[in-house]
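Entry 14. Two folds queued back to back today. First construct below, sequence then structure tokens.
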Amino acid sequence: MKFFKYLFYIVWRCWFYGWVLLSIVAIFPVLIVVTSTEKLYPAFFRIARAWGKTILFVMGFKVVITKNQSIEKDKSYMFCPNHTSMIDIMVMLSMAKNPFVFVGKIELAKIPVFGFFYKRTCILVDRNSSKSRKAVFDEARRRLGNGLSVCIFPEGLVPSDESIILSEFKNGAFRLAIEHQIPIVPLTFYDCKKRFSYTFFSGGPGKLRVKIHDFINTEGLTVKDNNIIKKEIFDIIYKELSTDLKQQ
């Protein structure tokens, strides 16, 4: 029985990586064009959404969204989901219609094919470099100024310890939101870790539940309010994850 279980995981994981790679290769010429200039970013984003939805579908995942508040079209937001899995990217793309830019770690740019377009479309940060962190802040500020939204996983990483429900938040997302006076959208991803964690022999198809919490208004706030907002959003997501774990 264990043999077939491990065989399933091997085939299923290879199915995922194969689809990610081949789907990008299939539309490589189109991606080259739509990532050649920022003016075409909305076109790239529509393609990226379709790509994310396709990957989730062929893996047997179904995104189920609960909304406390609806995202308005043509409005800028700071999206702040918890981070537990590589499929967080696909889930985020599938659920948000407003074009947004990911802020992500520079290491992902080394992934063949995917990394090429990742570094052309996302804002990359080297967490070991203070210069890089400042450059990220400046670039995110510029993108927000152009009317886009930004998605930052405020934990800054996927917790390596399986027992950690939610890692401590970094300041960047909240500082940017306050500076631009845009709403912060706290998001809880309940099932990504269970369905597709970084542990190879684990996971499986099923529902991926997402909750869009009440937005946090930043109008009138200053940088002095950063820690208050950060704690408020941390507590919202932590409470949601803890309650869900107790109910399982």
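Second construct, same run, same settings:
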Amino acid sequence: MAKSGQARVLSSKQRQHLFEVIRNHRHSEKNTAIMNISFKLGLRAQEIALLQVKEVARLNKVGTDFKLLEIMSLPAAYTKGADALKRSKSHYQRKSISFDIDSFNKVVKQIEILAKSGADISPEDFYPSVKKHKGKSRDLPMVDSGLRKSLIEYLNLRLGKGEKLKPSSPLFITQKDGPYSPNTLQEHMALILRDWAGIEKASSHSGRRSLITNVIHKQKKSVKIAQKIAGHVNPSTTLIYEEPPEEALEDALKDL
């Protein structure tokens, strides 16, 4: 079961229910494709929002037909911490900072000198620099039949409306025909999961957590494989998913 604050890992029944609800709701082609990418490729909401058509399909010269690719090549710039297309409005806010002893002593001396000179002192001036996350590219085979079917149906829907696609066209667009910001798509996915499907404590990260948990616990694949799928730089991040899934805890607690 997820720790407090973590996205819920969905059971197979909950996943089936989710996609049934989406099929009977508005914009079913788009939302099915979005959730398939989340649950079957493990992409984060930001990564899905930044996807362009060229990541999933090869277009003809005039953008009126396409061939779905076998492998999605996800650029490093799309991954967590990157704002590749300047669509994210989120800002990094420090909750804690740390210094080694030598650096701390230097900061104290600097503050002493400024205080004696009567200069204004702002704490932010002494914070250590933020280490920017460069992201990690990854190639993800698009082999799942449900995933492929949903992408084909969604792209055909857009072409059927007379849209001429470009390789750089956003893969998913809003009702106003513009690209999603990562924050907007995150909220949209949470709406589908919690309000439409009624799945408590689910979020846009539930698909990613469900996939990685499934790879480790049900498919019994190595953490290295799970790390590659997730695009984690550090394997210790992937090890978080070695916690027993909610289904295992339910089986242990029923009919005692």
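Quick look at the second one. DSSP finds ten helices and four strands in the chain. The first strand starts at residue 57 and ends at 59.
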